[in-house]
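Researcher: We plan to redesign the surface later, but first we want a full-length starting point. Tokens attached.
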């Protein structure tokens, strides 16, 4: 049987297509295996990180929320536990994030750690970060809830080692330094770190020092909380960047080893699915205005009543609650 030149070209074309498909399918297969492994690592990390609160739901909720369908809140705590063996530490960084699935938006409020509040469960007024040393996560969650009069549905705690590890894994963060200053490296009084006004690329030690400095900031606690939010946004951008794709497993490992949360694995996966396209540009930063005051020679941040009232309204509106 004779084959025409046309048949020969068709056969050759099929072979070329098969070769192209073969060479495309290999990396796709490897990528699929990689993401399958990453999902496995994510599940393992989420299970390792899960620590429930002593309650089923917030007293400000009638029922638990559904992440994909309803607005919800996350309390983010940076725990200062050096020198304490991880016990009785203080929440050095306190942020409240509200998420709304309708437009995948996020509000981010940073509460100055020295803010004077009523400590829930105790008949005292003290700095809000002391709630953690008094009664751990549960007392901190209740104190923040009562201060803002909104439910805290989930919490995430991250110690300084975890913060450093994640930033190292992504290769640093880029921030816009508001003014020239220097400060001592965290935990090292012999080493100074200098920051120059303008865009700077920071490694983990520099980022931690940048986020913690207060005394040299003319805005005090508010200036520090602004820089903390700036680092959080920069880290989100780094995690979402294409260059971080092959570092996902390392990031997941860092999270599993240094993060605690009451989000169950199904809730973590629901969050990833619903907010997969989330970017730092979607974050609306909120500030709690106030004044610096000393009471019995102890420094406190005194929240402005009007600012606090407006924040409560804005947070409740974003959460679609009355």
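Model: Full-length starting sequence:
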């Amino acid at each position: 049987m004779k084959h025409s030149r046309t048949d020969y070209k068709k056969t050759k074309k099929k072979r070329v297509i098969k070769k192209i498909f073969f060479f495309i399918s290999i990396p796709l297969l490897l990528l699929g295996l990689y993401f399958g492994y990453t999902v496995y690592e994510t599940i393992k990390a989420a299970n390792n990180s899960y620590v429930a609160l002593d309650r089923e739901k917030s007293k400000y909720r009638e029922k638990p929320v559904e992440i994909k369908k309803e607005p919800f809140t996350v309390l983010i705590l940076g725990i200062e536990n050096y020198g304490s063996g991880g016990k009785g530490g203080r929440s050095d960084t306190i942020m409240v994030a509200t998420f709304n699935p309708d437009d995948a938006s996020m509000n981010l409020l940073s509460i100055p750690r020295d803010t004077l509040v009523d400590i829930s469960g105790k008949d005292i007024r003290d700095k809000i970060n002391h709630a953690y040393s008094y009664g751990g996560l549960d007392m901190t969650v209740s104190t923040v809830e009562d201060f803002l009069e909104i439910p805290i549905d989930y919490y995430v705690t991250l110690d300084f080692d975890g913060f450093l590890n994640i930033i190292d894994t992504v290769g640093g963060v880029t921030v816009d330094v508001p003014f020239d200053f220097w400060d001592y490296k965290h935990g090292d009084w012999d080493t100074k770190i200098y920051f120059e006004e303008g865009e700077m690329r920071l490694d983990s030690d520099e980022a931690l020092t940048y986020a913690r400095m207060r005394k040299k900031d003319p805005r005090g606690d508010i200036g520090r909380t602004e820089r903390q939010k700036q680092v959080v946004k920069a880290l989100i951008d780094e995690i979402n960047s294409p260059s971080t794709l092959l570092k996902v497993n390392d990031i997941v490992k860092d999270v599993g080893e240094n993060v605690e949360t009451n989000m169950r694995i199904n809730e973590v996966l629901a969050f990833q699915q619903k907010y997969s396209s989330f970017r730092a540009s979607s974050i609306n930063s909120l500030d709690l205005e106030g004044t610096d005051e000393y009471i019995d020679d102890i420094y406190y941040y005194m929240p402005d009543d009007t600012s606090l009232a407006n924040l409560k309204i804005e947070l409740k509106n974003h959460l679609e609650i009355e």
